[in-house]
Amino acid sequence: MSPAEPEEPEGEAAGHVVFRRESRGLEFDRVTFFTDAIFAIAMTVIVVGIGHPVLTNEDDAGDLAGELGDLWQEVFSFFLSFLVLGSLWKAHHQFYGRIVVIDSGLIWLNLAYLAFIAFLPFPTDLLGSYAQNPLAVAVYALNVGLVLLLELAVLERASRKGLFRRPMTPETRRWALIASSVPALVFLASIPVAFLHPTAALYSWLLIFPLVMVVRRLRPATAQEGA
Q1: C-alpha to C-alpha distance for 219 and 225, rounded to whole angstroms
Q2: Which of 3, 54, 83, 123 has the maximal Cβ count within 10 Å?
Q3: Separation between Cα atoms, residue 111 and residue 164, nearest integer Å
Q4: Helices 170-196, 134-160: inter-axial angle, 10-degree rounding
Q5: What is the pLDDT along the chain (227 residues), one digit of tens a residue?
Q6: Which residue in 184, 163, 174, 177 sits closest to 97, CA to CA?
Q7: Taking phi first (over 0 means left), then psi (-120 to 50 degrees means alpha), and beta for anything else, what does residue 25 get?
């Protein structure tokens, strides 16, 4: 069996490169593997923000318990970001499972998306250290909000350019965009709230779950995603 030749991009002369899943798939897979690697690194690096306990008496369990208790904000920010990144990766994985073509525009949007994924450990560290500081909460919310807006942009481009295995109907597309916009709006709306009450802004992120459930219940059967 001869070695697979490099996949030739389509439309390169026009400046619009297209890679199809149905071909040898090397370039298509490189995009997904690169994305998975960025997610894996970000999900690992966020744990670095959890500080190391400093004990006056290394044999005192009470001293260690007190130091560990002081780290609760950092532990909370780690698990929050792990949940956020895990949810984003799952959605990204499902999205790429439904498309058969990647074009140059989608690659650039994906790179912008991944830039903010890679940046998330920094606001995670800020939030873990200064959870009651309104700016720390706002920076975290802005980072996640921008990731979610770019996720919307990726979905919109894939739908508009016909990159899905089965094209979305206008109704399916509209409801998919509505459902995807809810988390972005919640995070972005929490930014001004953070400057009034940081804790309230943190709790406001929980609104995502009931709001997404409401959207799913309101979405008609004819608008179910089937791309």
Answers
A1: 10
A2: 123
A3: 19
A4: 170
A5: 444 444 444 554 445 555 555 544 566 778 888 999 999 999 999 998 777 766 666 665 666 776 667 778 898 999 999 999 999 999 998 888 888 888 888 999 999 999 999 999 999 999 999 999 999 999 999 999 999 999 999 988 988 888 888 877 788 888 888 888 999 999 999 999 999 999 999 999 999 999 989 988 887 776 665 44
A6: 163
A7: left
The helix or strand, by DSSP H or E, that contains position 126, with its residue range, turns out to be helix 121-129
Q: How many helices (H) and strands (E) does the chain have?
A: 9, 2
- Crossing angle of helices 72-98 and 134-160, in 10° steps, is 10
Task: Please spell the DSSP secondary structure of 87-110, one letter per residue.
Answer: HHHHHHHHHHHHBSEEEHHHHHHH
The two structure tokens encoding residue 204: 């406001």
DSSP three-state, residue 211: helix
pTM above 0.85, yes or no: no
Is residue 26 classed as helix, strand or coil in its secondary structure? helix
Q: Are 56 and 63 in contact (CB under 8 A)?
A: yes
Asked if 28 and 21 count as a contact pair (C-beta separation under 8 A), the reply is yes
- Give CA separation, 122 vs 78, 89, 197, 219, in Å: 11, 18, 22, 36
